[in-house]
Write a structure and sequence with these properties.
The chain has about 475 residues and is α/β, with parallel strands linked by helices. The chain has 14 helices and 16 strands. The chain has an eight-stranded mixed sheet with strand order 4-11-10-9-8-5-6-7, with helices on both faces. A four-stranded antiparallel sheet has the order 12-13-16-15, with helices on one face. Helix 12 runs parallel beside helix 14. The longest helix is centred in the C-terminal third of the chain and has 27 residues. The chain is globular and about 90 Å long. The protein binds pyridoxal-5'-phosphate. Pyridoxal-5'-phosphate binds next to helix 7.
Length: about 475
């Protein structure tokens, strides 16, 4: 008998994963054998003593593992007949398939796509110091279930920070901490639906980041595309949309600012129609030629939903953003999010609050501003010097710039393919237009994206690749690089 059980152990390759504990290893190996059908229902198991001897472990460990599997329904223990494999559900559990959604592969080559800050500049040391401080000082109660609108510490800190740096007029009660702007927009959609008891229409600038209209459409709302001219969204093209989403400080992707006249027009539209404005202030901290223009929200806190994020000042991976809501949406927020929990883990919220309160966030943003201003200047100088027919458009702000080409210079697809062949990755402007065929010829350069040491080589590679494109440069210019 002993021999038979010993063989059973070997035949079934009951290899114990010894890391993680012997008992867990035995449980894992037996579960696997039952699930895969290698041990069919009714199979009698060896005695715990025999199994322990076979596997070279203490008998108590085996007994505990068997008891656990009896409790889970893999085994059953019958008086006088020992332990057997219990009947299992008819169909074997489906194998978990690898996710059909590919994770983004790291991009090889020169990454000048827009949308990223320099991740190498993340204030790791300050974040670590703040973490230590928070862990040493936060009362136990701070780690419990917190207000779903976010930790009060962060909401207080943000009111001061946003008032000082962006001219936002709000109170801690009006702030909701969200897991990024996309999540914030989702929440706004939910509030609108709750308020109107029906889906509504949401106006976006055209061009815009295409994911956002797609997101609101997926949530059942209608997305309208309102053209942008040199002053920003054409407010006169708005009708009775429930919301107009704008990027006033630095239009994404064109990089212009919403003119003072358009700001007034937009606020009048909202007051007249009862619509709301969502102000996506994604990179409002970064202006290089003058003081940042204050948030539109300060002009009409009762009609503007202000949205800010740490994705440009620190890192998209933090998933930390905020909304400052108008009064009108506050009651709805409380009703429609009654069953929600805080959207962002509270420790990160406390850390960010600490970084704001001790001035570290301001210092970090100032350092980044210097870094990105220098990069933008270098890009502008290189374009002016080597590509005289190319125009760097938009204001000196944010983390990206648009290069505009003479209309007949090239085809966007061919230009992008040429750059990719030279290992330079950028985005074409047409991807942001509702009707891509109506897009002017241009590319976005995310000069924030490379690490500092890699920016110079990345810029050289870009300019060289563009100079190699004969359509863009008259021949004599090509020798100058
Ligand atoms: C126009 C615009 N708004 C907001 C954001 C910030 O999004 P999130 O906070 O979800 O990272 C981005 C990010 O790239 C953006 O391009």
């Amino acid at each position: 008998m002993e021999n038979q059980w010993a063989r059973w152990g070997l035949d079934l390759h009951l290899h114990l994963r010894r890391h993680g504990g012997l008992r867990a290893g035995i449980e894992h190996a037996l579960r696997d054998a039952v699930r895969s059908g290698r041990l069919p229902a009714g199979t009698r198991l060896p005695s715990s003593r025999a199994l322990a001897g076979d596997l070279g472990v203490a008998r108590g460990t085996v007994t505990q593992a068997l008891e656990q599997l009896v409790a889970e329904g893999y085994l059953e223990s019958r008086p006088r007949s020992g332990i057997r494999v219990a009947p299992q559900p008819a169909a074997p559990p489906a194998k978990i398939k690898p996710s059909p959604q590919p994770t983004l592969p790291p991009l090889r080559g020169i990454d000048l796509r827009s949308g990223f800050p320099d991740l190498a500049a993340f204030p790791r040391r300050a974040w670590l110091a703040a973490t230590r401080q928070v862990m040493q000082t936060a009362p136990n109660a701070a780690l419990g279930y917190r207000d779903r609108a976010g930790a009060a510490e962060l909401r207080h800190a943000l009111v001061e920070y946003l008032g000082r740096t962006r001219g936002v007029v709000t109170t801690p009660a009006h702030i909701v901490i969200c897991a990024g702007y996309a999540h914030a927009l989702r929440l706004v959609c939910r509030l609108l639906r709750h308020r109107a008891a029906a889906p509504g229409t949401i106006a976006f600038e055209d061009p815009t980041e295409p994911d956002y209209p797609a997101l609101v459409a997926q949530l059942g709302h209608r997305a309208h595309h309102i053209p942008v001219d040199g002053e920003g969204m054409l407010v006169e093209a708005l009708t009775n949309e429930a919301v107009a989403v704008v990027t006033p400080a630095h239009q994404y992707p064109l990089g212009i600012t919403l003119s003072p006249a358009r700001r007034l027009e937009l606020v009048s539209w909202a007051r007249r129609t009862g619509g709301f404005i969502v102000e996506d202030d994604y990179d409002g901290e970064f202006r290089y030629d003058r003081q940042p223009i204050g948030a539109l929200q300060g002009m009409a806190p009762e009609r503007v939903v202000y949205a800010g994020t740490t994705s440009k000042t620190m890192a998209p991976g933090l998933r930390l953003a905020w909304l400052a809501l108008p009064d009108d949406l506050l009651t709805i927020l409380h009703e429609s999010t009654r069953w929600d929990e805080s959207y962002v883990n509270v420790i990160d919220q406390l850390i960010l609050a600490h970084l704001i309160e001790n001035g570290e966030l301001d210092r970090h943003v100032r350092r980044c501003r210097t870094r990105y201003r220098r990069r933008r200047d270098l890009l502008g100088q290189a374009v002016a010097r080597h590509l005289p027919h190319v125009r760097l458009s938009g204001v000196a702000a944010g983390l990206h710039a648009v290069l505009r080409f003479p209309p007949v210079a090239d085809q966007e697809g061919a230009l992008l393919a040429h750059l990719v062949a030279r290992d330079v990755h950028v985005e074409g402007l047409s991807a942001f237009y509702h009707r891509p065929e109506e897009s002017p010829l241009g590319i976005l350069i995310g000069y924030g994206t490379p690490a500092d040491h890699a920016f110079g080589p990345a810029l050289n590679a870009l300019i060289e690749a563009l100079c190699d494109r004969r359509q863009l440069v008259p021949p004599p210019q090509r020798d100058r690089l």
